[in-house]
Design brief:
This protein is an alpha+beta fold. It has 8 helices and 7 strands. The chain has helices at residues 30-33, 56-71, 100-107, 141-152, 157-167, 190-206, 217-233, 235-242, and strands spanning 2-4, 18-24, 39-45, 75-77, 87-89, 96-98, 186-188.
Length: 243
């Protein structure tokens, strides 16, 4: 799920945002999985702005209805290329792959600047500098569902706001799928995380590889070599580096 400008960023600079939802079949090998002819475009929220935090639920409900049929009892196709008398097909929705904002919206989680900022643990944002992983209280699917139902069944907006402030969880139609795990299935989207996030930050800020920087490339390459040496010496990174 992601938002895009239907006017293709033309010079008129229309501030319009549409939200699209795509499905990828993980049975395909990687070299075929993301080809245009193998991508299923299942829906779009036309805009002109992004849907609110819970408005996307109306669209997700329609998709969940389909996947419920594909899970139990499955969908029987009367005839396929290899099966003259048809076959039963079953499918599950395994992962939600989106940028940070869309992933949290689909899973019913609060933003990265909220009190409950983390999708994997219950650490509060006031303790964001705590790097002792053993002290992080893990989120669980059962607790997430309990808090989501509490938000869904609230009798007033004030009660919903109070429940969301306390737990950082809203109801998501994806929870109707019996196998859906909102903690494990909310996947980090690598394009925004690495190429537009961490990698861009390290290149521009740490290594100062930027047009506005006048640092000579020799000094940049020296810092890169030093950083690589430091990484190799970190015991927790040795296995990844050698692998």
């Amino acid at each position: 799920m992601d938002s895009f400008n239907p006017f293709h960023l033309k010079t008129a600079k229309q501030s319009v945002s549409s939200t699209g939802i795509w499905l990828f079949c993980l049975n395909f090998p990687l070299h075929l999985r993301f080809l245009e002819e193998n991508v299923c475009f299942v829906g779009v929220v036309p805009g002109p702005g992004k849907p609110s935090l819970d408005q996307i639920n109306h669209v997700l409900d329609l998709i969940v209805d389909v996947f419920q049929d594909f899970w139990v009892p499955g969908v029987h196709y009367t005839r396929t290329f290899k099966k003259e008398f048809g076959r039963l097909a079953q499918a599950i929705l395994i992962a939600s792959l989106s940028d940070m904002l869309a992933a949290r919206q689909a899973a019913g989680l609060s933003s990265s600047t909220s009190r409950r900022f983390c999708t994997g643990c219950g650490l509060e944002i006031r303790d964001i500098e705590n790097i002792d992983k053993k002290s992080w209280p893990p989120r669980t699917a059962a607790e997430h569902v309990r808090c989501a139902i509490k938000w869904r069944d609230a009798v007033s907006e004030e009660e919903r706001d109070a429940a969301f402030e306390e737990h950082g969880v809203r109801w998501s139609p994806l929870l109707r799928l019996p196998y859906w795990n909102p903690i494990h299935f909310t996947v980090t989207e690598t394009s925004h995380l690495f190429f537009l996030g961490l990698v861009a930050h390290h290149c521009r800020k740490a290594f100062r590889i930027d047009r506005s920087s006048r640092v000579h490339f020799s000094s940049i390459s020296a810092r890169i070599l030093i950083s690589a040496a430091l990484v190799r010496n970190i015991s927790s990174c040795k296995r990844l580096w050698n692998g």
